[in-house]
Design goal:
Layout lengths: L4 H12 L5 E7 L8 H15 L13 H6 L2 E8 L4 E7 L11 H22 L5 E8 L4 H18 L4 E7 L1 H15 L8 H10 L8 H10 L17 H14 L5 H7 L2 H8 L6 E3 L23 E3 L8 H12 L4
Helix pairs in contact: 1-6, 2-4, 4-5, 9-12
Length: 334
């Protein structure tokens, strides 16, 4: 079996830096899997919007939706079960620079891979709430990168969903986004079987290699994440989705959430004003937990505040509103 060092780098990144508890390289669908129209609905609607776009319709050419998802393959797939997030990453390691032909053709192939991965994740992992699809490469020339970024901007404008993110990571950003975080994370791992990690640790044994502390510090200050932002915020070692679930359950166990506040948390205006949410924080079990697009917008397998579903739509922008509310709750000010 051929082992790709670049794919293993992404595998290690997803496992150690993005907290994916399930990670697989060369993920493929099975011909024995069956999907229904409800599972396919969000992806089909996105496909139709893309086919109506003058700038993007050519990336799929004659490819039909059914063909796109049934012949699916993702270089590296990661599942962050605490954040209910799926990562699908395709990587190209062309030593002479990313090249699938002329720049326009290369751009269309890259976008096709990115968007198809979104289709796949929405269809086969529809119980998850967040979908991240990225194409990464260590080297691309400006003449090729320019049309890719132009198509990326058009695609982002069509998504209109903060729970879906796409990106193209190349050149210096490839190393800042992937390599630096992996080196930082695996340095603290004493026992790892990942190929890239073991290769790095092997190089560390070479006494001829000297890395200054200032160089390490500069790297840590420029580390990025695949969502295009700097390192995702954590509290008590948890990202936003996991942290909110933990604190909501803790508050309820401590009898700090009153019946009045539970009613407030079911109110759309209150949820928008206090948490900057687009959905009520809580919904009773008698209500639909899906959005207008058919996607589940609430944690369906957990109960909160007794017998309610809680919205799963938590992103970085919700940190401050939630922490502000949390501090008041812990002080019994609400």
């Amino acid at each position: 079996m051929k082992i790709e060092i670049a794919e293993n780098l992404v595998y290690t990144y997803l496992k150690h830096s993005e907290g994916c508890r399930v990670t697989q390289t060369n993920w493929k669908t099975s011909g024995q899997w069956t999907t229904n129209k409800f599972e396919e609905k969000p992806a089909r609607e996105l496909y139709e919007r893309i086919m109506e776009s003058p700038k993007l319709s050519t990336i799929f050419k004659e490819s039909k939706f059914d063909q796109l998802i049934k012949q699916a393959e993702i270089d590296v797939l990661g599942l962050n079960t605490t954040e209910h997030a799926v990562y699908g990453i395709d990587i190209a390691f062309h030593s002479a620079g990313l090249n699938y032909g002329p720049p326009k053709k290369t751009a269309e192939i890259v976008l096709k891979k990115i968007i198809r991965t979104i289709f796949i994740m929405q269809t086969y992992f529809n119980d998850f709430k967040k979908f991240h699809s990225f194409f990464v490469t260590p080297k691309v020339y400006q003449s090729t990168e320019k049309p890719i970024l132009e198509l990326m901007e058009e695609a982002k404008s069509l998504l209109k969903d903060e729970m879906i993110s796409i990106d193209f990571i190349a050149n210096d950003d490839f190393y800042k986004t992937l390599v630096d975080p992996v080196i930082e994370s695996v340095s603290n791992e004493n026992d790892t079987a990942e190929l890239f990690s073991r290769a790095y640790k092997l190089l560390q044994l070479d006494k001829r290699i000297k890395i200054s502390e200032s160089s390490d510090q500069n790297k840590s200050n420029t580390i990025k994440r695949l969502n295009g932002n700097t390192s995702k915020r954590t509290e008590e070692g948890m990202k936003i989705g996991q942290f909110v679930q933990y604190k909501m359950k803790t508050l309820y166990e401590q009898n700090k959430i009153s019946e009045k506040e539970i009613i407030n948390l079911q109110d759309m205006e209150y949820s928008r004003k206090v948490f900057n949410q687009t959905y009520e924080v809580l919904r009773s079990k008698g209500k639909d937990i899906k959005g207008n697009d058919g996607r589940t917008r609430y944690y369906a397998t957990n109960e909160f505040c007794g017998d309610y579903f809680m919205t799963a739509q938590w992103t970085e922008k919700h940190w401050e509103p939630f922490l502000s509310w949390l501090r008041k709750m812990e002080k019994n000010e609400i």
